């Protein structure tokens, strides 16, 4: 070590920096910075990309002090269960303080990627004005901004390469934000506005596409009709990734024929999505590009019937990532299994949330896929029913799962054949899939499934539990067994104080723990908060009255409705609303 | 707390039977743990299935949710787009605009003494339900058609027993 140290010290810092450039993973760079003071220093000043999985684990000041030359930042805000309306609206996750701090410190920000954060127009305007080299903005599941904010980005970011809006709640002000890209803007590589509800100026879009010769990825919104798509494809046959807007037209019309020809010319498209508002008879227009597709997302296209879906899929032999609705049915999944031998990731979403479930897939479809697709490693599957036998078969067929998320439409449905809990099935999955990093379980489940998870899921980083388990033992098996656990989220399960408090130090090794509608009491949460100063333990009430009212109602023996705890370097957050109390 | 096979809670406690602090909290929960299997079967649990809110709003029927609305005494029906409303009060305002009348929302409030109109809807099971009982999104996804009934006509329209009883007691 000493010899090595002195050898390394011969190299000037620039060389060290150059060597570190080859380290792209955050974990590697974090490890490097622990070696010695000089490596820490070189790494610190050369670090360009920073990932912060929980925006409240640190604060902007510390980020800037630690990595003063950062150029690219990824921030995540609300807990995952916020997606399912379990977190009240104004909980937090504001990006403004981060942008403000970086602007003040003259950070040379080029890329910003946000997930589940509140992004105000003010933030976007400040972003647009403050960072002259800004290149890439990716917003996923965010809210709080309008098209006015987008207009500011379009107008001011001279070198913008990427504007990628995925599944955000955007208030559409019907201004012409797209027209705000100046004529001088030719740098766009990726533009995704599929989640916007309002009209965009089609002519402005066509001109924009025509002058951005490096455009590779374009996803249109619902408001843009087929005619516009056709014109755009003529201008941009070099696209790799296309999201159609609306895809409905008279298949005999001239426009449609022109579209077919334009599509034929797009030899580079590898990823296809959209079909928002679709006429199934128009689908054949895309058949010519299906053979080379590696990603296909039809999950926002409920208008495509099962037979049309399968006809389309038969053309897609190279698909690696497929997102569809359960309208495909078990039979359709059989077609996928026979056709898509390169399939790695499959997501099957429910098409009918509250109905009696006409469509819906069952264990049969899942088994067929597992048998037919040897490269399958990631699945999200919403289904009507499941059996242990099927899961055991799937586990045998696919030992390579890294993500396995199963969601039965009835959260406590037992094995459809034997009426037993689904413990054995999930047990088989964790035992077989040694590389599993993410797991969501559902169906009727006892403590036994958690015994299996604790015993076998050695690489597990994220676990989602709902309506499962019998007692504290279940949660204890997981906390004791899963050494690499980072995120644990639990709802409506009978886990309580004993489980919560048994290994308090564990939570400092994790990013966060969410527990709602469980058995933990306020007193236990207080104990935890007191013993673990480096955790924020938040009690979240529904939006009824201020914190004073909350405190008047709850005493230590009362169960806490929602608790979210996370490790942090910076203590209780200063922006918590009334209904969030950090103990 | 142990749960036996039939899903009943069999916790032994010392003390008087009746309400405790803990039970007060339980009322707040939309889903009573394992007490109401019917709610679970009908997928009326908040946030289940775990489909992201954005996806819920946008992947069904291209977002638009037009349903017919009939008003007792009006010669023709109207249509209203549920996806354009964020909640019951907005819907009621639209209905009042459509039919040029006031007071449709009164039935949703606690004090029902003076409402002339009773807004009801037919759900996916074919049952006629009083507007306002379930969370907005659940309603929007299960509503097939709306009807604004005049209270005087409340009898014999297939309202659920609880509401029929309410109607009967008002009539006395």
From TrEMBL, chain A:
Gene Ontology biological-process annotations: auxin-activated signaling pathway; pollen maturation; SCF-dependent proteasomal ubiquitin-dependent protein catabolic process
Domain F-box: from-to ranges: 11-52
GO cellular component entries: nucleus; SCF ubiquitin ligase complex
Protein name per the record: F-box domain-containing protein
GO terms for MF: auxin binding
Annotated keywords: Auxin signaling pathway, Developmental protein, Nucleus, Ubl conjugation pathway
Record keyword Nucleus present: yes
One Pfam family it belongs to: Transp_inhibit
Compartments, as annotated in UniProt: Nucleus
UniProt pathway annotation: Protein modification; protein ubiquitination
Record keyword rRNA processing present: no
Top-rank taxon: Eukaryota
Source species of the chain: Salvia splendens (Scarlet sage)
Cross-referenced InterPro entries: COI1_F-box (IPR041567), F-box_dom (IPR001810), Leu-rich_rpt_Cys-con_subtyp (IPR006553), LRR_dom_sf (IPR032675), Transp_inhibit (IPR041101)
Automatic annotation (TrEMBL), chain B:
A GO-annotated cellular component: nucleus
Predominant place of localization: nucleus
GO BP of this protein: auxin-activated signaling pathway; regulation of DNA-templated transcription
Domain of life from the UniProt record: Eukaryota
Matches recorded under Pfam families: AUX_IAA
Keyword annotations: Auxin signaling pathway, Nucleus, Repressor, Transcription, Transcription regulation
Localization in the cell: Nucleus
Domain PB1: 64-151
Assembly notes: Homodimers and heterodimers.
Protein family membership: Belongs to the Aux/IAA family.
Function summary: Aux/IAA proteins are short-lived transcriptional factors that function as repressors of early auxin response genes at low auxin concentrations.
Name of the protein in question: Auxin-responsive protein
Naturally occurring in which organism (per UniProt): Salvia splendens
